[in-house]
Amino acid sequence: MLDGFRGGLEGCDLDWVSVGRKLLPAANFLDKLTLDLSSPIDELLDLTRQHKDRLLWEQSYSKRDKVVDDAMLAGYAFTELTGKLGPFISNRLRCGIGIWGPGITYPLHWHEAEEIYWILSGTARYCIEQDDPVLQRPSDIIYIPSNTPHGFSTEDEPFIVLYLWQGADLRQISEFS
Ligand SMILES: [Fe+2]
Q: Is residue 98 packed enough to be buried (19+ CB in 10 Å), middle (13-18) or exposed (0-12)?
C-alpha cells in the first residue's frame, strides 16, 4: 500500500523553503502525551513536540466555510512537512502531521488525491464511504482511495496522525456533501 507513495519521496529533499511559524491551540495537545521513546512512533511525536513552536500549524477550513463545526475549528491543526508549498518541496507527495482534540467529528469529505493516515496517538471511529465506523488505534494505517468519502470521530484523547497525499493537487480543499 505504501509503495505507491514511495516514489513521491524522490527528490523532495532537493529544495526547501522557510514557511514561517504559527502555533495553533491543537498543537499543545502534544505536551500532554506520555511517550515511550523506545517506540519509533513516540520518537516522532517527541520530535514534533520539541519543535512545535517553530512549525507552521494550519487549518484548511474556517468558520465562514460552514463545513466543520466550531469544536473542530477550536481543536484541530496540521503541520506540513512535505508538499508543494514546502517546507520540503514536492509536487508529488504531501506529508504532515495532523492533530484533532478529543470529542471532535470530522464529517465525511473527499478529495482527488489518494491518502494514507498512519495513526500515531489516540483512537477514532473512522468511516470510509458509508461503511460502519471502525475503531482505529496507534500504528494502524488507513488507505483512502481517490475521491472516496471519509471522516471520523475522535474519542477521549487527542488523535494524531501522519498523513500522506499523492496523485492530484496537493493543496485541494476537500469537498463535503
Ligand atoms: Fe482526507
A: buried
Ligand 1 center–CA 173 separation, angstroms? 10
pTM of the model: 0.95
Q: How many domains does the chain have?
A: 1
Any domain includes 70? yes
CB burial class (10 A; 0-12, 13-18, 19+) of residue 3? exposed
Q: What is the pLDDT of residues 128-148, one digit of tens each?
A: 998 899 999 999 999 999 999
Does some domain include residue 86?
yes
Structural domain including 90 reads 21-31+45-168
Ligand 1 centroid, distance to 85 Cα (angstroms): 18
CA of 15 to the centre of ligand 1 (A): 26
Distance (angstroms) between ligand 1 centre and the Cα of 114 equals 8
Mean pLDDT value across the chain:
94
Q: Give distance in angstroms: CA of 111 to centre of ligand 1.
A: 7
Residue 13: is its pLDDT beyond 70?
no
**Cα–Cα dist 124/76, whole Å:** 14
pLDDT tens digits along 44-66: 999 999 999 999 999 999 999 99
